[in-house]
What we know:
Bound molecules: the ligand C[C@H](N)C(=O)N[C@@H](CCCCN)C(=O)O
Subcellular location: Lysosome membrane
Number of strands: 0
Low-confidence stretches: 1-15, 410-444, 506-512
CATH topology of the domain at 24-244: Growth Hormone, Chain: A
CATH superfamily of the domain at 24-244: MFS general substrate transporter like domains
CATH architecture of the domain at 24-244: Up-down Bundle
Order of helices and strands: HHHHHHHHHHHHHHHHHHHH
Protein name: Lysosomal dipeptide transporter MFSD1
Helix content: over 70%
GO molecular function: transmembrane transporter activity
Transmembrane segments: 27-46, 80-99, 111-131, 137-157, 169-189, 201-223, 257-277, 297-315, 322-341, 347-365, 377-398, 457-476
Keywords: Lysosome, Membrane, Transmembrane, Transmembrane helix, Transport
CATH class of the domain at 24-244: Mainly Alpha
Structural class: mainly alpha
Amino acid sequence: MEDDNLKKPQAEEPFTMAVFVEEAKLLKWRVLIVACFLTFGSYYIYDFPGSIGTGPHNTIQKRFDDHFGKGYYSQEMNQVLYSVYSWPNTVLAIFGGLLIDKYLGLRRAMLLFTGLVFAGSAVFYVGVVAINYPLLIFARVLFGLGGESLSVAQSAFVARWFKGGRGMALAFGITISFSRVGSSFNFLFSPMIAKDKDINTAVMAGMLACCISLLACFVLIVADRYAVNVGYIKAEAHENSEDAMNLRDIFKLPKELWVICIICVFCYTSIFPFIGIGKNFFEVKYDYSGDEASRYISIYQFTSAGASPVVGALVDGIGRNTLWLILASSCFILTHLMFIVTSIPAAVMMATMGVFYSFLVSGLWPSVPWVVPENMVGFSYGVMTALQNAGLAIFPLITGAVLDHYMAATPAINGTNTTNGTNGSHSFMAFLEDANASESSSSGALPELEGYKMTEILFMISAGVSLAASILLLILDKRGSGVLTARAAERRALAAKAKESDPLLNHGDGDL
Ligand SMILES: C[C@H](N)C(=O)N[C@@H](CCCCN)C(=O)O
């Protein structure tokens, strides 16, 4: 929403109204800060199994082993905590989107999802205190019911407040950057708290983080109601039966959205699963130690956190989302090619990869509200997230099989996926492979470099599909409204024209 797009206070309107509207101009940026905290808790607790799950000291494993006997808490039990979160979300995110657009509305859905995430963190705490594994599983299921849908709700919220004007890509960049902060905080603080206090306190800190998200949700609800009351944003579509999403409309979703989904699935599968195998790859390719390799992987987290807002601002200033997507996909093809044919230091490669990831996220997620009707933005993000989860669940199975094939001498050990848990690839197999990978690192058995080169080719193919889809998106867009390829300055006029021919398409242009 562009500030000059606000409902202009009329001369006869009371002075207070003008003040409210002026205030609301600033409100969207303050609201964005709060929106960043919406998913802070879920990103913080997501990687608990990775940060404080296993290990000889101050971990969940230690607590269970002390109670039930050594060897009770296995790597597999730890990885199952990830899988019960992930697999259901290959479908559940769609229902999350439906709840947002059709049944509950964004505000109530956000409350439900943050409530589920908080409940999950609380049950997890009880499970750790009571040393009860089924409770831990139940906690992660509860968390999973809310976690990914909350990310969908966050996207829908940002789109609702920022669409149709400057700042949307920047806003997405800032929230995505903050997600990385949430993950990094967990890896930084949880082991520290567990060491200085105990494991219960470390898990309780996660509850606190989720409590912050719940508080943020309350603030966002109040801010959203306030903004509706002063005319800054429209009432939620589901509140008006005429505007509410109709299930039949699902079949009318534009082709552009499905192409955006293809880009999302394939570009993400060329990144997250790579991060999943990156540590071992660097150990084999560059002969780094495990710790050194992990540090280089984390460079990607930091550069992407830093670059996402900057690139977001650039995308806002320039527009032309389709070209950013073409650029991002091309950069990923090139990156994986470089990993095969050059020995450029991993630190440099990972830093550039973090920047390329920012091209992707700033071009991709903000494109959705431009092409789908306003009353289906949440649902569209839900579909996109579900498909993304499916891709990220399946792709590591393929790379894992390739790497298994290239295991050097000890076929019983699979060294495909030693990760720090932040790989973004949330598949059961990937995490089981992580577990095996810890064994392999300690035994030194990793797949041959040739195997990693084969996976690099797969990542190139994946990015290649994303590139082809991005070009297709450009063509479709040029044939249609052209809004995704337009310069930022031209967008509002194009969006208004598109809306004239299809009233369902509401880009927030001039409605207020
Ligand atoms: C967690 C989710 N599946 C995801 O991939 N999120 C994106 C960002 C989504 C936009 C903000 N809600 C990511 O790149 O982490």
